[in-house]
Design goal:
The protein folds into two domains: about 10-260, Alpha-Beta Barrel (TIM Barrel); about 325-370, no CATH class. The chain has 14 helices and 15 strands. By secondary structure, the protein is α/β, with parallel strands linked by helices. The chain starts with 10 loop residues before the first strand and ends in a 7-residue tail after the last helix. β5, α6 (about 170-185) and β6 form a beta-alpha-beta unit.
Length: about 375
Amino acid sequence: MISDASAPPLGVYVHVPFCRHACRYCDFHFSTLLKQIPEVVDAIVREVELRLPFDTQASTLYWGGGTPSLLPDADFTRLNEALRSRLRLDSGAECTLEVNPEDVTNSSLALWRRAGFNRLSVGVQSFRDDRLDWMGRAHRGVDAEVAVRRAQDAGFSSMSLDLIYGLPGSSLGEWQEQVGRAMELGTPHLSAYALTVEPRTALAHDVAKGRSEAPRDERAAEDFLWLRSEVERLGWEGYEVSNYARPGCRAKHNSSYWQGSPYVGIGPGAHSYDGHRLRRSNVRNNSLYQGAVLANKESGWFDLEQLSDQEHFHEQVLTQLRRVEGLPRSAAGGRNLSEAWSKWIGMGYMVSDELGWRLQGEGWLWVDAVASDAFGLES
Ligand code: SF4
């Protein structure tokens, strides 16, 4: 079990595996059986006690999901107190809560502030009601605007808004309007994701049956490239393939994932990494997780994976090429990456210099293809 929490900077992630209903594109782990919340929170609290020794030093805390903001106050407080009793957070530690707009009320904001959260990640996805209906979201466009303004009034100046682009039937003009509305709200950070059809989702089923149009790559590419140029024009950083921030406002927790720092993930479906070669994944099933953890089972509810050197190299390529800093030379381990990537460098999609290899321009659209060109190389 990964529980060595002594090597800073450590990130702590808590997965809250409940949603009010399923968004049709979503393949995250969640359940809509909200009556299970108290028992699953009991189990998450137990895992906190098992895996986080007292005085575990951490630099970031992130509650994601699922929908952490739907937790009833008593369950939220119980889980938060369990975490805070174990963690010694660095001064100025980033503590993020993922929230859906329909949960953002003055009283929930007050609870989250009292609980020590200083950053919200708001699942906006779109400000248009027709798109929200199509996605199966539970809120209206106006709810997202009200939620952001309320959160700012309550003192949450640090926040991120999630948006989805490349929707079937959308246009570049629509995407420009969506981004404009997010910017008008004064958010310092945006996460923008292309709509993808993930297996075993309602969207995949509808696309297969011809009941729904599939998203088109060209539509997503146009939205993506426009956003990257727009944030540059505004003086922001497109610091990761899906993440954009005002200078000084990058997400610390997610940045540490991409840099290969260690993190402990608690809750069903959560992943952990020791910063070297050991990965851990908890079972993506609330009942199995809860039953095993509360029965004090020492196995059967998580998998451990020891990465080989080659697997570790692949992970580094996949995650670090997505960052604006790219893959450092030190990660190559003697492999001739400039030769493997000569096609991309020649097309001007990639820069190779003394620091390493970085994507640029339209190269960002090809991050997975570029990464796979490095995978056959031996060290
Ligand atoms: S997108 Fe978010 S709110 Fe919707 S089902 Fe997935 S985790 Fe839940």
